[in-house]
């Protein structure tokens, strides 16, 4: 798979690469945050049509997301998103590099990553589609049923279909990406710690219609697709890991570098890997979880010459460590069952002291001591175990940590059959 990182100029015009002088392409467009089942359905259709027609399967990825760009502009007098804000946002489910990795697994031939900005956003959907046909040789455009594009988001599927029929230069293929239907989530998601141990249930299941109307009104809810990034974010904020993973079609994960902590876990006999605050992925609600820890190794350092050649031609082959997928694979020697803790270390907080929120992972690796400092790790979430609490002393905490480790090991083993 090839990747092109494209920067629109000051007027919003993109210098599109020439994919081929002979082959056409099938294209889809979006942010694809989380790469959930809806996204997968769209991309799988792109790959299917491309194979049938002998075309390239192409994904146009907006990074940063249009929502971030327009939200920043709305609160900063129409200003562009500054460079320091371009890093992964705390509300993003998945880094762009991880989305691209999953696109490769689905069979995509080319990812065109657009540095989305206001000048680019001001172009009409007609202009945008025209460039895809004229510059890329787009034969077919694949969209989800609720997709929109172009200035003012005026390019919905109906408008795009009318353009297709009027011009006859491309066809539109619409994918039903809503999955099992729709659900309700609060417009502003606040993290809500579950009341007790165990995976929380869906609060809407047992409600009557009247109760549901009252609940959605009280929480200022909006109706969203079950297969949506908004729903996944809400589920993670409620500790509903099983439901989130069902929507994603894969295990939810956060990635980051292991940094030095206070080493209290080691003193208690349960050493933990502390993940940097500069992690990638939306952090679920505070609590203890069962999951996996995967050692991705030390970050790869590309040479200056490599970076220069990539910036000159805008196109590169996928630069991820060729062993990355091997490390992630089931049964990998770099993968361990883990008890995962998100919180503020309440047991050790002295009166009036507030610890920062941290992600700590106890890898269940037998008697082996894992020296992961400076390594990048992936923390995969399988199940919510319990809320955080303050224990009366270290002995009580150690007893609970032993139970967490046992529960996590059992759940991890069950997840691989």
From TrEMBL:
CDD domains reported for this sequence: FAD_synthetase_N
UniProt GO BP: FAD biosynthetic process; FMN biosynthetic process; riboflavin biosynthetic process
Occurrences of domain Riboflavin kinase (ranges): 247-413
InterPro entries registered for this protein in UniProt: FAD_synthase, Riboflavin_kinase, Riboflavin_kinase_bac/euk, Riboflavin_kinase_dom_sf, Rossmann-like_a/b/a_fold
Keyword line: ATP-binding, FAD, Flavoprotein, FMN, Kinase, Nucleotide-binding, Nucleotidyltransferase, Transferase
Pathway per the UniProt entry: Cofactor biosynthesis; FAD biosynthesis; FAD from FMN: step 1/1
Pfam families (UniProt xref): FAD_syn, Flavokinase
Coiled coil regions in record: none
Residue ranges, annotated region (Disordered): 299-323
Single GO term (MF): riboflavin kinase activity
Record's keyword annotation contains Transmembrane: no
Catalytic activities: riboflavin + ATP = FMN + ADP + H(+); FMN + ATP + H(+) = FAD + diphosphate
SUPFAM superfamilies (UniProt xref): Nucleotidylyl transferase (SSF52374), Riboflavin kinase-like (SSF82114)
UniProt family annotation: Belongs to the RibF family.
Protein name: Bifunctional riboflavin kinase/FMN adenylyltransferase
